[in-house]
């Protein structure tokens, strides 16, 4: 059963592999070329932090000799969205035992998308094992990418312009997968509108947090209607199967 679960997790996580490898490499190159540290510290950061945008922000803050208080506030604002991710997975992670701590630690944007969009069985223990393996694979991809990029940045000279687009491409793929599961474009339009409003009316340092708050407010407002619609759909599908 464990081997089968591992193959399922590997298959589900492969899209993240193709995004994390070049994106992690771009972070590694940036780390090695901008900071005067040993190359292996980049994959060590990936092991202990595992936050792509947070690690990229950390490099820019370290380069500019920013104080620890400003670093703390910036990282808190940047990763505040994970609070909302965790709330939606309380039931899925319940009674996960020792796995729960790693599932919480490894909950990135991409992992959250995979965990919430994949088909699930009634066997909660099996599903939690698959969730754990997906998170572990994604973490390994990121560490590998960071390590390769840092080593290359320290030992080779090359033009890596444009490699950061891998993150955008990865989010596009995950967005499409979410749409296939939800069969609704409403969350996509809400996200686009919230991002545009934040971009137009708020300073850059607050845009991500404001956009997340707007999205959550609208989705919470829509939750009762969507819940009843989803139940009706399940009842209809069950009736069709019979």
UniProtKB/TrEMBL annotation:
Superkingdom classification of source: Bacteria
Keywords carried by this UniProt record: Cell membrane, Membrane, Transmembrane, Transmembrane helix, Transport
One family name in Pfam for this protein: AzlC
Subcellular localization(s) per the UniProt record: Cell membrane
Listed transmembrane segments: 12-31, 38-65, 130-152, 158-179, 186-202, 208-225
InterPro entries: Brnchd-chn_aa_trnsp_permease (IPR011606)
Signal sequence region: none
Membrane topology annotation: Multi-pass membrane protein
Family in the record: Belongs to the AzlC family.
Official protein name in the record: Branched-chain amino acid ABC transporter permease
